[in-house]
Design goal:
655 residues; Recoverin, domain 1; TIM Barrel; four-stranded antiparallel sheet; repeat
C-alpha cells in the first residue's frame, strides 16, 4: 500500500471508476489520483483516522477515571455508559462486563473497557447493511448515504439535504463530518433514533386538520375513570383521572350519587367500591384537563343524584372550573352543527341529560322519563327529576335514548349523543354497518363495556372504530392488547386525544360498510412485508437467576374483519441479548386508513402459555418503510429501553 496501486472505486451500483491509491507513512492518510486521460494534477488528500472510535472510547474512560488508577468497577462503568448516552439492560451489561474482564479483577482497564463497549454495541445485522452501501467498508460518503436513503428508506425529495442533516446530527466523528461522510457508529445512531424508527416522526406531532366538527374525530375515552381496580371492590380515587388525563384521554366518566352532608359522591353504585367526593373530581379535572392536550375534555355524567345534590354538582362545576366549563353555544348563537376541537380548545364539555334543546331554555324542574345514563339497552319507565342548573351545563352533548338509525336520521339533533353497550354496538355493525357509519358522521356515539366485565376487562375497540364510533370508552386501569390498540391509535397527531376519521367515514354522500370494505369508492388494497431481522437486549420475564428467554415475534393486524391477521417468526433458543431471525411475514391490508399494526415479543414455552416480553403498536399509515427500529413498550405501555426490534418494511400497491 505504501507503493500504491490502481483500484476500482465503487460509490454506488452505477458509479464505478478507477483511482490510484497510496497509503501515506502515517498509516492514516490515503492519497489518490484520478485515472482520467490527460489529468496529471487532479489529486486529493483524505485524512481519516482508522482507529478513531477506540480512541474516542478511551477518552471517555479517562474522563470518568477520577482517581487515575486506570480501572473501573461495574457501577462506575454503568455511570460512564449513561454519560455516553448508551442505553443498556443491566443483566446483559453485567454478563458482558464479566466477559471483558480478562484479568478477572472485577474491574476493567481501558483496553478491556473498549472491548466491553464494542461487545455491548456491536450490531452485525446493521453492519451488513452499512457495508452493502459503503464504497470502502469504512464509511458512507454522501453519495453512498443518498443511495441508501433512496433505495431502502424510499426518500424521494430533498435527499441530499436530508443526508447532510443526518450526518450533522448523528455522526460522532468531526473528521467524517468534514468529509461529508458517515461512519458505522453514526449510521447506527441514525437507525436507533426517532428518524430511524418505524414510526414516521412527521406524524408524531400535530399534523391533522383540527377544524372539522367534533363528530369527525375518534376521541380517546375512559370508562369508570375513578376506578383503579375492579368494578366490585376496587379502589376509587382521583388518581384515576390524573393518570387518564396525562395519557391524553379526552373523555372521562363520573358516576354521581347522593352523599353525606349534601355533598355528591362518586363511586360504582350498589357495589363495595370506595367513594370520593364529586367536588374533588372536578378540582382535579380543572387542574389536569389540559396538561397533555389543549383540546376539549368531555365529562360524561352518569347522574343518580337528587335534585338538591344536582344543584350542588352544578355549583361545583361552575365555581371550580370557571371559564373552562362551556355553558353556552360559542359566539352566543344557535349553532347549526357541532364545533371543532380547534374551536373548543381549553374547554370542558358536560355530557348528560338536558331539559329541551339548544333552541329553547326551560325553567325550573321537569320530569324526564329516562333514568341515569341513557343507553339503548335500558328499558325503564322510572322518572328522574332534573335540575335546571345542571341541565344548563349541558350544551353540545345531550344524552338521548337510541331508537333506530331511521328514527335518528329523521329526528335526531347534531348535539345529541347516544350510548351503546359493546354487544349492541356489534349487533348494529353486523346488521347495518354502513348506516351506523353514516349515523356517526352526523353525531356522536359512545360505546362502553358490558356490565358483566366486573374485573374491569376491556372489549376490542377496533370493532367500534371500524363503524366510526367516536367515544369508545375503555378501562384505562387494565393493561392489555385493548389498551395497546388505544395507545397506538392516539400515539399520532401530537398525542392530543383526537384523531381525524378517514374521509369515507366523514362524508355523508359515501357508503362504507366495515363488513364489506371492497365495495367502497377508492378501494386500493396494499401489501405489507415485514422482515423481522433481529432483537436487541430484550428484558427477562423470569427473575430466576440464569433464566434466558426464547424469543419469538408476532405481527398482528387490527382493522376491519377482512384485515384481521397475525403471523409469527420461529423462536430463538436462549438468546434475549441479540436474537436473529431474518423471517419475513406478509399481509394484505384492505383498509389501511383504519388498520393498526402490533408487534409483540414473547418468550416461547412449549408446555404452557408464552410469556409477554414487550410490544409496540402504531397506525398503519404512520409506518416508515425501509430498515427501521421498533422500540418496545412494557405491558402497561411504558418504555423499556434499550429493548428493540430491527426490521425491514415494504409496502406496495396491489391494484
Amino acid at each position: 500500500m505504501f507503493v500504491g496501486t490502481v483500484m476500482r472505486k465503487i460509490k454506488s451500483r452505477t458509479w464505478k471508476k478507477q483511482r490510484y491509491f497510496r497509503l501515506q507513512e502515517d498509516c492514516m492518510t490515503i492519497w489518490y489520483k484520478s485515472k482520467k486521460a490527460g489529468n496529471a494534477h487532479s489529486t486529493c488528500k483524505y485524512s481519516f483516522p482508522l482507529n478513531a472510535i477506540s480512541r474516542w472510547i478511551c477518552d471517555w474512560f479517562k474522563k470518568a477515571d477520577k482517581n487515575r488508577d486506570g480501572q473501573m468497577n461495574f457501577k462506575e462503568v454503568r455511570n460512564l455508559l449513561k454519560m455516553m448516552n448508551v442505553d443498556m439492560n443491566e443483566h446483559h451489561a453485567l454478563r458482558l462486563f464479566t466477559m471483558a474482564d480478562k484479568s478477572q479483577s472485577g474491574t476493567l482497564e481501558d483496553d478491556e473497557f473498549v472491548l466491553f463497549y464494542k461487545m455491548l454495541t456491536q450490531r452485525e445485522d446493521v453492519l451488513r447493511v452499512f457495508q452493502e452501501y459503503s464504497s470502502d467498508g469504512q464509511k458512507l460518503m454522501l453519495q453512498d448515504l443518498k443511495d441508501f436513503l433512496r433505495e431502502e428508506q424510499l426518500h424521494e425529495d430533498g435527499v441530499q439535504q436530508y443526508a447532510l442533516k443526518l450526518i450533522e446530527r448523528y455522526e460522532p466523528s468531526d473528521t467524517a463530518k468534514m468529509l461529508q461522510a458517515m461512519t458505522f457508529d453514526g449510521f447506527l445512531m441514525y437507525l436507533s433514533s426517532s428518524e430511524g424508527s418505524i414510526f414516521n416522526p412527521n406524524m408524531v406531532d400535530l399534523y391533522q386538520d383540527m377544524t372539522q366538527p367534533l363528530c369527525h374525530y375518534f376521541i380517546s375515552s375512559s370508562h369508570n375513570t375513578y376506578l383503579l381496580e375492579d368494578q366490585i371492590r376496587g379502589h376509587s380515587s382521583v388518581e384515576g383521572y390524573i393518570r387518564a388525563l396525562k395519557r391524553g384521554c379526552r373523555c372521562v366518566e363520573v358516576d354521581c350519587w347522593d352523599g353525606p352532608n349534601g355533598e355528591p359522591i362518586v363511586y360504582h353504585g350498589h357495589t363495595f367500591t370506595s367513594k370520593i367526593f364529586f367536588k374533588d373530581v372536578v378540582t382535579v379535572l380543572g387542574n389536569y384537563a389540559f396538561k397533555a392536550s389543549q383540546y376539549p375534555v368531555i365529562l360524561s355524567i352518569e347522574n343518580h343524584c337528587s335534585v338538591e345534590q344536582q344543584k350542588v354538582m352544578a355549583q361545583h362545576l361552575t365555581q371550580i372550573l370557571g371559564d373552562k366549563l362551556l355553558k353556552s353555544p360559542l359566539d352566543g348563537k344557535i349553532p347549526i352543527g357541532l364545533p371543532s376541537p380547534e374551536d373548543l380548545k381549553g374547554k370542558i364539555l358536560l355530557k348528560g341529560k338536558k331539559i329541551g334543546g339548544l333552541e329553547n331554555c326551560m325553567n325550573g324542574v321537569v320530569d324526564d322519563p329516562l333514568m341515569g345514563e341513557v343507553s339503548d339497552e335500558e328499558d325503564t319507565k322510572s322518572k328522574q327529576r332534573l335540575s335546571k342548573e345542571l341541565s344548563d351545563c349541558v350544551v353540545y352533548c345531550k344524552s338521548v335514548h337510541f331508537s333506530s338509525f331511521k328514527h335518528s336520521q329523521i329526528h335526531s339533533k347534531f348535539y345529541e349523543i347516544s350510548s351503546f353497550t359493546e354487544s349492541k354496538t356489534r349487533k348494529h355493525i353486523r346488521e347495518a354497518g354502513s348506516e351506523f357509519v353514516l349515523h356517526n358522521a352526523r353525531q356522536l356515539s359512545r360505546v362502553y363495556p358490558s356490565g358483566l366485565r366486573t374485573d374491569s376487562s376491556n372489549f376490542n375497540p377496533q370493532d367500534m372504530w371500524n363503524a366510526g364510533c367516536q367515544i369508545v370508552a375503555l378501562n384505562f386501569q387494565t393493561a392489555g392488547v385493548e389498551m395497546d390498540l388505544n395507545d397506538g391509535l392516539f400515539s399520532q397527531n401530537g398525542h392530543c386525544g383526537y384523531i381525524l376519521k378517514p374521509t369515507f367515514m366523514r362524508n355523508t354522500d359515501e357508503r362504507f360498510d366495515p363488513e364489506n370494505p371492497q365495495n367502497r369508492d377508492g378501494y386500493k388494497p396494499l401489501s405489507l412485508s415485514v422482515q423481522v431481522i433481529s432483537g436487541q437486549q430484550l428484558p427477562k420475564v423470569n427473575i430466576k437467576e440464569g433464566s434466558i428467554i426464547d424469543p419469538l415475534v408476532r405481527v398482528e393486524i387490527h382493522g376491519v374483519p377482512l384485515d384481521q391477521a397475525k403471523q409469527e417468526t420461529r423462536y430463538i433458543d436462549n438468546n434475549g441479548f441479540n436474537p436473529v431471525w431474518h423471517d419475513t411475514l406478509q399481509f394484505t391490508i384492505h383498509v389501511p386508513e383504519l388498520a393498526l399494526v402490533r408487534f409483540v415479543v414473547e418468550d416461547y414455552d412449549k408446555t404452557s402459555k408464552n410469556d409477554f416480553v414487550g410490544q409496540f403498536t402504531l397506525p398503519f399509515i404512520c409506518i416508515q418503510p425501509g430498515y427501521r427500529h421498533i422500540h418496545l413498550l412494557s405491558k402497561d405501555g411504558t418504555s423499556i429501553p434499550p429493548s428493540s426490534l430491527f426490521v425491514h418494511v415494504r409496502i406496495t400497491k396491489l391494484m
